[in-house]
Amino acid sequence: MSEQQKLRPLSIGYIFRKFLYGLSVLWGVVTLVFLLFNVLPDDPAKLTLGQRSDLASLENVRKELHLDKPVWNRYLLYLNDLSPISILKNEPEVIQKYQTIFSSTIHQEYTLVVKKPYLGRSYQTKRLVTEVLGDALPGTLILAFAAILIATVLGISFGVLAALKKDSFWDTSSILISVAGISAPSFFAGLLLAYIFGFLLKQYTGLDMVGSLWRYDAFGGRHLDLKNLILPAITLGIRPMAIITQLTRSALLDVLSQDYIRTAYAKGLSKAKVIWRHALPNALNPVVTAISGWLAELLAGSFFVEFIFSWKGLGKLTVDSLDKLDFPVVMGAILISATIFVLINFITDLLYTKLDPRVKLSK
Predict the structure, then answer these.
(1) Which one, 85, 221, 242, 360, has the greatest CB density within 10 A?
(2) In Å, what is the CA distance from 86 to each residue of 105, 111, 112, 217?
(3) What are the boundaries of each domain within the chain?
(4) What is the mean pLDDT of the chain?
């Protein structure tokens, strides 16, 4: 049996296995996060009420947060809260706490419900964690997509230029820039860019060292301030730009050495048509895969960049919540980041066969 016969097209079985794999990864993250924040010495009840709270209030909060139960019991209750399909006590105050979509009584004391995942309430603001995360998530999404757009445009441009000008000044310069971009940690690059363009050259650039997508004032309300997106997006896009540059250069050089490229030249096609219509599209498969992988990483890992530039997103929210020991918000932010990472990688795997017809996924 040939290799092509052994390989089969994308199947329901493959999708189901990838789905189970994603769930197992999320379950591992949930378990690790829960254990990490439930073995700490700080009392969540005191964090909720403050250090001057009375004993009666502390006991009520401990009961509400299930702190009066053993760790294994709290873990099962936590999974039950996260699951979209849960079994709850048939009590109005219990059902009312959750955003229920559907419910059905299965026993005199218990109800089966379909609901939104419940991440608890913030210790500091008493708001639902899902609401807090919902306010921060758009900032992270905008920053990540802006960064990957900058990285893609510049990376492909530099890579094509380096391949077409092989062994020239442009080729050497692009390689040096790529190595520097890969080597520079994001927090170092962020501090450097903020200091140079947001402080030393502020009168020329008009950029601030810190800022967010929206600017507020007492009279005009909320205003969109896109200039604050420039520095954090460039900082976040430096490393993926370096990788994309190297991949584009390497893949394009490989494609340019193929026989069909020489055939295209022999037919009298111009160099521009050969490059843009034949060579570059065939060289972009590994580049597209890298872009999707980096997008997942940027969405889930922009913590330091957001904190450096005071950009209001999941990263800054997580760091601020850790500083205030607001554990439900931190746990929710980590779970959201892990979910985004798993989903993007899952979608990338499914789309890869469309990007490269030579690749088939086994059944």
Answers:
(1) 242
(2) 12, 8, 6, 44
(3) 6-115, 129-355
(4) 79
pTM of the predicted protein model? 0.78
CA distances from 79 to 116, 120, 325 (A): 13, 12, 22
Could you report the per-residue pLDDT of 297-353, keeping only the tens digit for each? 787 667 788 888 888 888 888 888 888 778 888 888 888 888 888 888 777 776 665
Neighbours of 120 (CB within 10 A): 19
Q: Which tokens is 225 given?
A: 């301030």
Instruction: With beta carbons less than 8 A apart as the criterion, state whether 233 and 147 touch.
Output: yes
* φ, ψ at 284 (rounded to 5°): -90, -5
Q: Read off the pLDDT band of 59 (50, 70, 90).
A: low
Residue with the two structure tokens 């997008």: 295
Question: Regarding the domain delimited by 129-355, which CATH topology (the fold level of the hierarchy) does it fall under?
Answer: MetI-like fold (1.10.3720)
Query: Can you give the pLDDT at residue 58?
Result: 65
Distance between CA atoms of 290 and 247, rounded to whole angstroms?
8
First vs last C-alpha separation in the chain: 16
Answer whether 128's CB lies under 8 Å from 330's CB.
no
57: left (phi over 0), alpha (psi -120 to 50) or beta: alpha
